């Protein structure tokens, strides 16, 4: 029987290999983290993946689509990590400390503020809405945990949304470096303890 021709630009499929789309996305994410949106072209991604540019465009029609997908995947991984930590059966304060320590360690090379700034500048309105929705889902995970702890009497009653955003804002201090590149905290563990101790004073009963 005559084989149907492949769609132009569609990559060959190997059942035993990691999906090409995943490889493209992971590679592009690493490049965006290292070089930023403007400094990475679709050709750069194709070369790094050892595939044709047509393959990249088959999965991601524009660089904005690729950048959007990279951000969505990154935020979803962060959200799932947050969820996993917050669902543990240890005291809430310890969960918060663990969340900050792990999050800071895992994202030490990721400048999320710059990622979001470049998204605002370079993405379409619909793409930006997708990114903002994913960001809101991250906050929602923490907000729901705050609400549960309020209901269980672990922390004082208050606005769970405010608590979640305040916590995330404080967590970002863990990335702070002065003009000479010196970090505010000597380690992620120290940052986690100091930040949670500060936050806890405002929510403890």
From TrEMBL:
Q: What Pfam family does this protein match (any one)?
A: TetR_N
The DNA-binding region ranges are 41-60
Which InterPro entries does the protein's record reference? Homeodomain-like_sf, HTH-type_Tx_Regulator, HTH_TetR
| Ranges of residues in domain HTH tetR-type | 18-78
According to the lineage, what is the superkingdom? Bacteria
Q: Which UniProt keywords apply?
A: DNA-binding, Repressor
Q: What is this protein called?
A: TetR/AcrR family transcriptional regulator
């Amino acid at each position: 029987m005559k084989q149907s021709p492949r769609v132009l630009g569609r990559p060959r499929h190997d059942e035993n290999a990691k999906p090409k789309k995943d490889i493209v996305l992971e590679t592009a994410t690493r490049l965006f983290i290292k070089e930023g949106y403007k400094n990475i072209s679709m050709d750069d991604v194709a070369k790094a993946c050892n595939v044709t540019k047509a393959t990249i465009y088959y999965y991601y029609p524009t660089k904005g689509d690729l950048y959007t997908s990279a951000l969505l995947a990154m935020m979803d991984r962060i959200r799932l990590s947050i969820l996993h930590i917050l669902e543990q059966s240890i005291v809430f304060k310890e969960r918060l400390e663990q969340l900050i320590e792990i999050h800071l360690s895992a994202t030490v090379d990721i400048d999320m503020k710059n990622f979001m700034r470049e998204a605002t500048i370079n993405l379409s309105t619909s793409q930006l809405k997708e990114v903002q929705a994913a960001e809101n889902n991250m906050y929602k995970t923490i907000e729901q945990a705050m609400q549960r702890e309020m209901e269980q009497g672990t922390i004082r009653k208050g606005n769970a949304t405010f608590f979640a955003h305040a916590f995330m804002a404080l967590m970002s201090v863990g990335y702070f470096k002065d003009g000479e590149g010196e970090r505010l905290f000597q380690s992620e563990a120290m940052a986690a303890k100091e930040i949670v101790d500060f936050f806890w004073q405002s929510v403890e009963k």
